[in-house]
Write a structure and sequence with these properties.
Layout (H helix, E strand, L loop, with lengths): L3 H15 L3 E4 L5 E5 L2 E5 L3 E4 L5 E7 L4 H12 L4 E8 L1 H6 L1
Parallel strand pairs: 5-6
Antiparallel strand pairs: 1-4, 2-3, 4-5
């Protein structure tokens, strides 16, 4: 099984090889969500940003359950300029659930 960190590193390498997308980590560069007077910092595992500002969010959900993934999806839907959202799961773990 590929580790969570390895998958994140692979996503960074893929973005770098395209020379179009710029990969960022939500841990070091969180996405800003503002609704009314509320402000939330969203920390996806990896996100890619295009030169036009479109955002492609990746969540590596090896240990998260379905509720946590729905929460991540809800947060990502509030991000301005969201273009795509992708969840990467460990198929073996999900088949057990």
């Amino acid at each position: 099984m590929t580790s969570h960190t390895t998958v994140k590193d692979i996503l960074f390498e893929i973005a770098e090889s395209t020379k179009y997308w710029k990969a960022k980590s939500g841990d070091s560069q969180p996405l800003d969500i503002r609704k009314g007077k509320r402000h939330i910092e969203y920390n996806p595992d990896v996100y890619w940003m295009s030169p036009q500002g479109k955002i492609f969010i990746f969540e590596v959900a090896y240990t998260e359950d379905q509720r946590a993934i729905v929460g991540e999806l809800t947060l990502s839907s509030l991000v301005p300029n969201i273009w795509r959202f992708c969840v990467i799961v460990n198929n073996e773990e999900w088949q057990k659930k």
